[in-house]
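User: Predict the complex.
Assistant: Input components as received:
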Amino acid sequence: MTTTKAEKKKQQPDAATAARWKDWLRQMLLIRRFEEKAGEAYSLGKIGGFCHLYIGQEAVAVGSIAALGPGDYIVASYREHGHALARGLSARVVMAELFGKADGCSGGKGGSMHIFDASKGFLGGHGIVGGHIPLATGMAFSAKYRDSHEVAVCYFGEAAVNNGAFHEALNMAALWKLPAVYICENNRYGMGTALERASAIYDISERACSYDMANEVVDGQDVLTVHQAMTRAVTRARDEKHPTLLEIRTYRFMGHSMSDPIHGHYRTREEVEEHRKRDPVVVWGDRLKAEGILDEEGIKALDADVISEVEDAYQFADKSPDPEPGMLFADVYAPTGDR
Amino acid sequence: MALVTYRDALNQALREEMRRDGQVLLMGEEVGVYQGAYKVSRGLLDEFGPMRVVDTPITELGFAGVGVGAAMTGLRPVIEFMTWNFALLAIDQIVNSAAKMRYMSGGQVATPIVFRGPGGAALQLAAQHSQAFESWYAHIPGLKVVMPATPADAKGLLKSAIRDDDPVVFIEGEMLYNVKGEVPDGEHVVPIGQADVKRAGGDVTLVCHSKSVSVALKAAELLAADGIEAEVVDLRTIRPLDEEAVLASVAKTHRAVVVEEGWAFAGVGAQVVDIIQREIFDELDAPVLRVTGADVPMPYNKHLEKAAKADPPKVVAAVRKVLYLE
């Protein structure tokens, strides 16, 4: 197929778009390499407790968070390393938090499941499935109460939609017309239970009909598609004060947590391999090559760049001190309130 | 000083704090148009409007979480539970969200929120509506637990709770709403964490809180008729517990009985007894006894219900035991 010079120029994104698209690839690569390193560190005993990797779902966090403003709020589940990195928390402070160190973004007291940076509106990783969905509704309520233009965004898996917190939170958001975006990252499995073994309906997005709420099904392996859907949802929230439920279909390439094998008893190796063919990092890399924004060498250079950033984060986390023993009793109550 | 009901004292506290601070709002079932299931919020919707007096669907888990999210982002919500029995549906938000947020965020995120509503048994409401859950919440680091017994304390402590930067579980006495008492005029604030001696005496200490304060005071009257002077220490705050006040009284009387509405097992009284034996063992002239609710779900039948509740005769009997009169 041949294209004329004029056609090529027309299709070509402008310089700002090209830079942005390239940055999305960089962010996805950073998350991928970060998570691989976290898995390695877990095996070495540097990271303890539960550790849930985001590999395979990178386009969801990167594409959606890119549509937010600096004042917007984000709450996520316990599979939130990727969202934190996409929000601009440094790999250093996130890795240090996974290591439980004093320089971690939560001072080493939160760990993998409780990543916070209030200055960036990143209000947690939360460990109880669905429990954080009402918090997002509250943040959206708060934005409306203060007559500000902030939007609250909540990330959760498809397994969370079966519990009461989801229903209660979305009903109130629609009832009160709150500026919220609920993102269901449908990665097909709640731990080892497939969607169709847990939910009476297959299309999660249809649950929004119960609340007369806008909704979309989105291809989560394509960062641009995610971004476009999220931009529509954020505009609807910010300008029209209407919430949206986005069902973003993706796939978890790794086990549920570090203690879960990649396929286990609940899915086949073939199924995982099939989904890996639509690796979001590869999909987007191919797109950038097709657009003439990056060539293979350029992608390799980006990859080398993030690998060294992750290595730096690992060394930083490893060298960071443990929290002071006195921190055990700090921050249970407000400093003036603890009497 | 004005004679005010416990209900209206709470109403005054809410109204004054909402006037004082635009970030304070009230949210819960029937708080607005209906004027409150127990009329604590009477007139507030008219004065403050629906954005600050928010009627919710019947969704305790949901609106408790909405309150926490709002508190994390700059507001100071007061979340009303129609009763604390229904708050069991919301306990995940109180314990896993509100109580933990400051700690697990490394001190970055405060949750200034008040969860309030009536607790304890009323009359013939049976097993699911007659429960005292204060020891459940007092068990949780990160929460404060406040339980006023009088109108003056209700007003002063609710104002403190609303101004507090930590989550406060504020449990009102369902049977106390109509009780009248003197409430100081003007600004009246009672600090969280301070017990109050409601009656002075030198023979035995009665440690109590909320509705059990009136049980202890009646018992003290009965005992006084027999020449026994009981000191009634109202904890007012369960967490943080005013250990000093309890210890000072027991060090003086050398005998103590702890009275509470709730069940005995791991109850508030268990903690009080622990403090006394640990800190002033040598001061004790008798083992500390407890008068609690019977270890059963609350029965509906009024005679059985009476038998299940802590009452003045049971307190008198316990006092006579610690005085070795029985």
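Chain B has twelve helices and 14 strands.
Let me know if you want any component modeled separately.
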